[in-house]
Structures are given as structure tokens and as C-alpha cells.
Amino acid sequence: MKYKAIIAFTCAMGLLIVGCGKSGSKDHVPGVLTGGVSIDGSSTVFPITEAVAEEFGKVHPRVRVTVGISGTGGGFKRYAAGETDICDASRPIKQKEIDKASENNVAFIELPVAFDGLSVVVSRKNDWVDYLTVDELHRIWMPESTINTWKDIRPEWPAKTINLFGPGTDSGTFDYFTEAINGKSQYCRSDFSKSEDDNVLVQGVAGDKYALGFFGFAYYIENTNKLKVVPIDNGEGAVTPTETTINNGTYQPLSRPIFIYVNPASVQQPQVDAFVRFYLEKAPELVSEVGYVPLPQLVYQLCLKRYSSGITGSVFSNRNTVGLKIEDLLPE
Amino acid sequence: MTGDNSGFSSGLKRRRKIENIFRIISLTITWVSVIILLVLLTHVTLQGFQRLNLGFLQNFPSRFPDKAGLKSALYGSIWLISLIFLISVPLGTASAIYLEEYGKKGILGKFIEINIANLAGVPSIVYGILGLAIFVRFMGLGRSVLAGSLTMSLLILPVIIMAAREALRAVPQSVRHGAYALGATRWQTIIHHVLPASTPGILTGVILAMSRAIGETAPLIMIGALTYVAFIPEGPMDSFTALPIQIFNWASRPQAEFQTVAAAGIIVLLGVLLLMNAAAVIIRNYFQRKYKW
Amino acid sequence: MGMTERSIIAGSKRVYLKEKAIAGFLLLCAMVSVVTTAGIVIVLLSESVSFFKEVSIIKFLFGTRWEPLLEPRSFGVLPLLSGTLMIVVGSALIALPMGVLTAVYLSQYAEDRTRTILKPALEILAGIPTVVYGYFALTFISPLLRQVFPSTHVFNALSASIVVGIMILPMVASLCDDAIRAVPNTLKQGGYALGATPFEVITQVIIPGAFSGIMASFILAVSRAFGETMAVTLAAGATPNLTINPLESIQTMTAYIVQVSLGDTPAGGTEYQTIFAVGALLFFVTLLMNIIANRVMHHFREVYE
After folding, report:
1. pTM
2. Hey, is the C-beta of B139 within 8 angstroms of any chain C C-beta?
3. Does C105 contact B at CB distance below 8 Å?
4. ∠ CA C254-C256-C261 to the nearest 5 degrees?
5. What is the ipTM, given to two decimal places?
6. What value does the mean pLDDT take over residues C187-201?
7. What's the total number of domains in chain B?
8. Which chain B residues are within 8 Å of A288, Cβ to Cβ?
């Protein structure tokens, strides 16, 4: 008769699990938000979104926010397929992606959320790099690059192989960097260590005296004890990325806005709507906390207006927005 | 007998020396394994112990290392294990019963046996690929607990089947013959006599298989366990994270504080494994006393 | 025929059908494993076939550059294969000799007291999840290596090899132990009777006698190292690199599969299909090794029956 007890126990466990599941999602306490918000995309934007999700969870503990880091490209692919509500993006949406989305009847509301100063970093043990010019960066990263050692950049530097690190091709950071430095997105030499996970890049550069890498500013700020940032000279002197220089636009051309793209259809769900509003509201303080630069307050208000009006379409896409002010781009 | 034993004794001395050297080497090497184990456990404990407190188990993951916790991972793993248990135990036991009691002589039985032996050696990531293609994409289950459980069930099914077969085999034939002699059908023999007698053995095997499942990461990554999950699954179709994935996630972050958090997570994981293995040993010992054939 | 006899006959027919139904149901359950194998093969092959329409299989198997995403693209799998091989060879160099010696010690020299410590210790080593080993490699072994060899990269093959070696050591030790025990005691005693030292008995009687089992354990352990994922993903790196320098960063086939799926390249597209092509290669190599190992074990097992 023992087996009957086992079967009964198994069934009871099964019912228990199913019962727990059902009860959770069915009872609607008025005023308490439930449901899910599905987010995926850039690992650059991830720290901000993670912070927002964490704080949001304190106010609305029943809402389930999930955040992935498939990369901007990967995030857009899922977004265009209607799998996610929000796409984290470290570059504007591309025409190809707009087309793909409209094929699936997915629209988007484009919302810049912060400034990033894309940082070029070396290990703390690197004691010879004082700055790099944009031209030097171009010579290092272009597809037919002949630069293999530090000496090839400047003769007084060590004759040791440069070990390059960068985000992979699904990364918006990669797209932006190649566009700003090499003139065309994804136009780049291919023999560098790639990872979608910026943490891996940090570890790689930090541990290697002869390494050179690039990623979002937040990942540098969180690891200043291991990394050294390289000031960039765009023709007007070497500029170190800091909150000020990123904000006032003197850190060029690697200063850029980063975005979230929201699906207007998902906004119909109250928890998604609440989340986006919370995001725009809390962005100024959370953005600085994780190491990025907040946009001017005016811009956040414009974004909120844009969002509330449900204005879709992109103003950043398909144009070189380097140096332009966001306030001018967003219509009233 | 020809003379000259001196060659023999100096040869003997040399052989004895070689013998001693060999013995010491093999002794040392064997104990090296134990030392490595101790080093590993000490390293992890030292790294993670400070983070271990009740809050750690109750908090959700956070961007602040000192606030990050295991709650969603722990519940996710519990959900996974429960579903895996419900899926793989009946399936595995039924398969083992077929192979041991019904299909031993046939070609079909042999064919299934070969399959299981091969499946046992397939890398876990291939199961992940299978799960991704079939459960996540083809069956449209998405990145859910159910998809994860189904994939992991397939992974440990060969282990459960093999353990169950051993347990069934351990039941003496006399028990079966006695039942047949009294007019029982094959199924009646199995369900009333063989299976109850082999249940402890099966249970032990199941627990060991489960402890393997709890620690597997690769298939779950393929299924698409998310990076930031701050809730407890409320149904089999929910997204989830699990203990090993959370550990992997924390270990991948370069900040030293997160390494500490990862170590704390590992301590919890090892603790769970220890409990499960202890349970298996206790069950095995208890029933070994009861069923003395 | 009275009521009782008729109901017995009617009853037995029912029982017969019920038995058949149950047997059929159990068979179906057992067939799940066959379906699983079929599923793996079908999934891997079908996507690989469409992959190989785009990329020539020769270029895949023999190309030396693995660059599936960035132009100019190249799908030569050799860097990934060499990465995996480095880990396999490295871990084998550690685990195989140590495993055999451990098994020899356990079965020939150790007293019962020592066995009660050693056997559980090995079992614990075997039960530790691989992600823990990866963490150990990253936080303990790699820093240690970098102090000894300063040119070691943060992610390197050696650290992963060491840790995978530790992981498969218990497997080798336990299987060799079984193999050694299978050698009849009479042979061993015969050796001692002729005046051989234990070392000589071991090297000239026992190991040759257990040779097939030892070989099988080697092959199985190597096959396990081939499929190892988490430890190498954490410790060995993500740089496809055709090199024999274990201090460099490399990428194994398994780590590549993980990397692509972390980026979640959605269905379709050649990049997505690389998962299946590499996965198929991995599957067939490990399958082959397992089959060979089983054959070896069975073939020589007969000798003592």
C-alpha cells in the first residue's frame, strides 16, 4: 500500500504547486498593480533599467519586471517580434529594425533617458597612455588596420602587442563607436576579444597591462580601482569623460544619448504605463547613481509629454546626431 | 642452484626502493585530491561567509552587492526541482520497469538500453540546445519554468532509469516467483511487491539525480534564464532564475564585492546539496536494515 | 459452464487486456529516451543541413578563422576545436595519471580507515557543481597562476584545464578502482608468491589486467571534459584563438554556444545556425567516444568471465 501513499503525495504536491500559481495571479486587489514588464536589450543601459526596476519593485512589489542583456541588436530583434515591452538601446533604432517592427505591427515610442560618455579604457598598470586622438583611434580600429603594437601608434610607446577588447556586434555601443570613429556602423577590424557582457570586458582590460577596450561610462565608473580612462582629443584638446564634459558636449564624438523604446500597445497595460512614467520620473537621480549623466530636466519633461501623447517614430534614427542638442530634436 | 646471490640482493634493494618511492608518490597524489577539496571549500567559505545572513536568503538580486539576495533564485530552483520530480520520476520509473520486467530479452529492449547509455554521456549543453529548439521555440513555451523543467528532466532521465533498474534488479527473483505462484499477474507482482521493495533504492537514485539537476547551469542558460528577475514564479509558465545561474551571474561581475556574494551563493548551493545527499544516505541505510534479503 | 467459470474466463480476458495495456504504456514511457535521441539528432542535423547550404562543410571543419558575426565572416571551427582540445588535453594530463594512481592506492595500499575518508572525499569532489569550479578557477587558480607566470591572461586555458582536471579526477579514480577490483585476486597473489614487490605486481599484473577498464575510464573522462561548459565559460575566455599557449585566452565549442545564446540571436540566420553546427560536432564527437568506451569495456570484460 506504500505506493498509494507515494502517488497521493505526488498528486498533492502537484495540486499545491498549481494552486499556488493560480491564486497568485487571480486575485486583484484594487489599486495594486500586477502583471509583468518584459525588457531586453543593451548591456550599457542595463544598469539604469536594473536600478529603476529595483526601485519600482519597492513601490509595486506585485509587478514582475524582467530585464535581459541580449545587446541592443538582439533586444531590437525580440522587440520587433513583439516579445518584449521595452527595448534598452545604446544607439537609435535602425531603419532595418523599424521596417521589421512595422512588418509585425509593432510601433515604438522613442525616449532618451541619459547621456553616456563611451569610454576608452586601459589597465591601471598602463602608465604610458596620456590621451588618444580620434585619428589614432580610427587607425587602431579600422578594418585594414596595420597597428598591432603600442609602438605602431606612437614610437615612444612600448613595442608590445595591443590586446583589444570590445562589445560584440549585437551591441549598440559597438555600432555607435564604429560609426563615430570609423565613419560607418559595424565597420571595424575583427580581431579583438568580443563579449556582449561588459563585465567580461572590464575583467579582460583590467587584468592586462597591454589591453585597450571600450564600453559605457558606467562600467568604467564602477571599476575605477582597476581601470584607467583615456582622454580623447577631437581636435580641441584631450577631454576626459566626466559628468560635466559629457553633459555640456565637450567630450566628443563619444558622448551620446541612450534610449528606451516602448511599445505603445504594451502601454495599455497599467503596470507598463506606471513603469515608464516611474522611469522618466526617477531617471535624473538613478542615472547619476549608476554612473551615467542625466539629461537636462527640460528633456525629461519633453519625453514625458512625448510619451503621454503617444508620439511614435524616431527623430534620432538615420541621421548623424553628433553634437546636436536633444532639446532641439524633440518636437514640443 | 647456481651461486651468486649478491646480484639478487642488490637487485632486491633497488626494487624495494622503487617500491617505496612508488608507494609514497601514490599516497601523496591520493591525498592531494583531498587537499584540493579542502582548499576549495575553505576558499569559498572564507570568501562568502560574511555575506551569509537571513537577509541574503530573503532579498532579491540588486545592483548593490550588500543588498543582493537569493530569494528569486532559491524559489526558482525549488520550482524547477518540484516540476522535474513530477515529470522525471514517473517517467523514469515506468521506463525502468519496462526494461527490467518486460523487455529484457527483446531487441526493442536492447535498443532502448543503448539509447539510454548514449544519452547519459551527452553534454548538458546539447540538452540545452534541444530544449531551446523544441520546448522554447517549437512548442512555444517560452522562457518558462516548464521549459526549463522539461529540459532538465530529459537530462537526468538516463540517470534515474539506470538507478531505478539497479533497484529493481536488487529485488530477488524469489519474491516475483512467489507472487506468480499465487496467481498474480505480472503487473500485480510489480505494483504490490517489486516496486515497494525497490522504492528506497529508486528514491536514493532520484535524490542523487535531483542533486545533479540543481547544480546544472548550461541548459538553463540556453533556455534563456534572464539576468534580472526580482520575483517568485507563480506558475509554470513564468520566467525564472535559479541558484546556479544567479551564482554565474554574480561571479561574472568584476566588482570584488560581487565575488563575495557569489561565494555566499555557492555556500547555500553546497548546503542544499549536502542536505540532499545526506537524505539519500539516510534513506538508503534505513531501508537496508529493513529489507535484508 | 456455471456462473463462476464464465466470470473467471471473462475476468481473465479483461485482466489480459489490462496487462497488455499497462505493458504498452510502460513501453511508451521507455520510448521517451529513444524519442529524445531522435529529437537531438533531428534538431541538430536539420539546422546544420541548412547551415551547410550557406557555408561549405570543408571550410567549416578545416578553416582556421572563426568570425561568425563581423565582416569578413569566416566559419572555420578549428579555433573552437583547438580551444576545446586544449582543455581536454590539459585536464587529461592532470586527471588520468592522478586518477589511476589514486585508484591504485585506494585498492592496494590504503587501510580501511583511510578509505572511509578518501572515498567520500572523491564523491564530494564529483558532486560539486561545475559553476562552483568555474568560480574557483576565476578567483583562486587564475590569480595564483598569474603570480607564477606573469604573462598569464585574466582568462586563460590553463586555469580552466586544472579545474576540469579536478572535476573528472573522481570519475577516473572510481572507474579504475572498479576495473582493478575486477582483476581476480588469484593473479595478484600469484605475483606476490613469485616474490614480486607490490609495485611490480601493480605495473605488471594488475594494470595490464585492468587495462580495458582503465582505458574505458580514460575515454569517458575525456568525453566529459569535451562537454564541460560552465567552468570554461567563466575561466577560459571568449576569444576564439588557434594557439597552443595555455596562458592565453581561448574559447571552447561549449563556451561559444553559451555566448551566442546569451546574446539571443533569434531563429533563422546563419549566426543562429552556428549553434547547431557546433553543437552537432560536439554531440557526435562525444557520442563516438562513449561508444568506443563501451565497446572497449565490453570487449575485454569477457576475458575474465
Report:
1. 0.84
2. no
3. yes
4. 100
5. 0.84
6. 88
7. 2
8. none
| CB-CB neighbors (< 8 A) of B158 in chain C | 33
CA–CA separation, A183 and A137 (whole Å): 12
Q: What is the CATH number of the domain that holds A79?
A: 3.40.190.10
SS3 content of chain C, % helix, strand, coil (to 5): 80, 0, 20
Distances (CA, A) of B154 to B85, B116, B127, B238, C256: 11, 11, 8, 20, 23
Give me the DSSP letters along C97-134: HHHHHHHHIIIII--HHHHHHHHHHHHHHHHS-HHHHH
Chains contacting B (3+ CB pairs below 8 angstroms): A, C
Among residues 133-162 of chain C, which lie with CB inside 8 Å of chain A?
146, 153-155
Q: What angle do CA C77, A162, A195 make, to 5 degrees?
A: 50
Chain A positions in Cβ-Cβ contact with residue B230 (cut-off 8 Å): 53-54, 57, 64-65
Q: Cell numbers 505493458 label which residue?
A: C23
pLDDT at residue C158, rounded to an integer = 92
- Answer whether B99 touches C (CB < 8 Å): yes
Q: Kindly report, residue by residue over C117-138, the tens digit of the pLDDT.
A: 888 888 888 888 988 998 899 8
A117-169: pLDDT as tens digits:
889 999 999 999 999 999 999 999 988 888 889 999 999 999 988 989 998 77
The pLDDT of residue C84 is 93
Indicate yes or no: CB of B230 within 8 angstroms of CB of A57.
yes
Domain hosting residue A275, numbered range:
3-115+257-329
pLDDT in tens, C45-99: 998 998 888 888 888 888 888 888 777 788 888 999 999 999 999 999 999 999 9
Q: Which of A325, A322, A321, A312 is nearest to A111 (CA)?
A: A312
Return d(Cα A66, Cα B225) in angstroms, integer. Answer: 10
Residue range C22-29: average pLDDT? 90
Same domain, A15 and A108: yes
Q: Is the pLDDT of residue B2 over 80?
A: no
Query: What is the domain extent for residue B31?
Result: 2-51
- Closest-CA distance, B95 to chain C, in angstroms, reads 4
User: How many CB atoms sit inside 10 A of residue B138's CB?
Assistant: 11
Same domain, B155 and B270: yes
Q: Does B228 contact chain C (CB < 8 Å)?
A: no
Q: Are A26 and A106 in the same domain?
A: yes
Contact B15/C200, CB-based, under 8 Å?
yes
Count how many domains chain A has.
2
Sign for the CA dihedral angle at A179, A185, A191, A194 comes to: positive
% of chain B exceeding 70 in pLDDT: 96
Q: With contact defined as beta carbons under 8 Å apart, do C79 and C66 qualify?
A: yes
Say yes or no for a CB contact (<8 Å) between B103 and C226: no
Cα C201 to Cα B12, C105, C209, C211, distances in angstroms: 14, 13, 11, 14
Helix ranges (H only) for A120-225 are 134-141, 172-182, 198-206, 217-221
Q: Kindly give the residue spans of alpha helices, DSSP state H, lying in chain B.
A: 6-48, 54-58, 71-97, 107-120, 124-131, 145-170, 173-181, 186-189, 195-215, 218-223, 243-251, 256-290
Which grid cell is A178?
564604429
Do A221 and A288 lie in one domain? The reply is no
Residues B39 and B61 both lie in one domain: no
Question: Which of C132, C233, C292 is most worth mutating to test chain B (most B CB atoms within 10 A of its CB)?
Answer: C132
Residue A139 within any structural domain of the chain: yes
Q: Does A274 lie in the same domain as A241?
A: no
Do residue B31 and residue B64 come from a single domain?
A: no
In chain B, what residues touch A21 (CB-CB under 8 Å)? 233-236, 238
Say if residue A60 is in the same domain as residue A18: yes
**Spans of chain A, pLDDT less than 50:** 1, 19-27, 332
- Do B60 and B37 have their domain in common? no
Residues C72, A207: C-beta atoms closer than 8 Å: no
Residue-level pLDDT at A24: 43
Rounded-to-integer distance, Cα C43 and Cα C38, Å: 8
